[in-house]
Write a structure and sequence with these properties.
The protein has 13 helices and seven strands. The protein is an alpha/beta fold. Strands 1, 2, 3, 4, 5, 6 and 7 form a seven-stranded mixed β-sheet that branches. Strand 1, helix 2 and strand 2 form a beta-alpha-beta unit. This is Mitochondrial GTPase 1.
Length: 322
Amino acid sequence: MAKGMKQMRDQMRTVDLIVETRDARIPLSSINMEFERLVGSKDRLIVYNKADLAPADIQHTVQEEMAKRSQRAIFTDTSINKSVSQILGVAKDIAQRDPVKYPQFSIMVVGMPNVGKSSLINALRRTGINRGKAASTGAKPGVTRAVSSKIRVLDKPAVYLLDTPGVMMPHIPDPMTAIKVALTGKYFCGIKDNIADESVLADYLLFRLNRLVDSNDYWQVLGIERPTDDINELVDMLARKIGALRHGGETDADKTLQFFLRTFRQGRFGRFCLDDLDEQSVEAFFKHSLLEAPMSKNQGQKAKRAAQRQRSIERARSKNLL
Ligand SMILES: Nc1nc2c(ncn2[C@@H]2O[C@H](COP(=O)(O)OP(=O)(O)OP(=O)(O)O)[C@@H](O)[C@H]2O)c(=O)[nH]1
């Protein structure tokens, strides 16, 4: 993980705008505190992708919360290029502000696995090229690419996109985040197997589904007889429904759980947000995260001086006591 982050930091130095891709279904749990440290004061745009799978009414709340922290967030759905042009707009604005500093402006997409980085790169390419000015890649070597791994996506100002995304492993400070990250992705990287166990994921998902006032029709989507808050009962009913049975009629729990999780990941239970976004929960999240975040250089020096002072006081006290 440290090696990956170091590689990404080196690459990030060479670009002007970081497009950090997160998952709209877990707007808080997809924040990577390690990356927060790494990104420093670099220009960054937060892109909540897979917006089509999350409730539309979370967007305003999330954008406001990010704005409070001086961060700009947009919501995209790369399958229909939704809001992708806004990313290019942000790049264009920054590049135009200082043409001397940015004779060639470059963008890098980063994010955790399966969040839609490659889809976003392709969507940016499509959007940029469709604007008509950008040359198609490969057609004019040396014109379409600033260096071998950069694709030109805007002409005036010249904006380039790194064609390979930076990959970061999810930041998993606690088991609940592990469950949410695993529920939204097909990879369980960096997450302990027992936490990412499908029965644990499914149990939590069922709990969330039953908590939603409007979404108790998950059982209708699955075609089972009734809602239930017992995962074993759900497995029994669903296994019969989908024919996930072993020889002798025993239910195939693994296959059934996988089906249940896949149905959720495909968005068939409706739009879903796994993070609680009421004011109190958001505040608690950031308070907890800040405790984890490292100190800035300034804060670090202050803390060092405070520690030295404390040591001197203690030394003086101990001498008096002698
Ligand atoms: N519903 C929905 N699915 C999306 C969206 N963007 C990407 N996907 C899907 O998410 C999956 C992962 O997309 P990728 O673009 O491969 O994600 P990635 O971050 O590059 O993945 P890695 O290569 O694993 O790091 C694919 O099945 C995409 O079709 C989106 O906006 N909405």
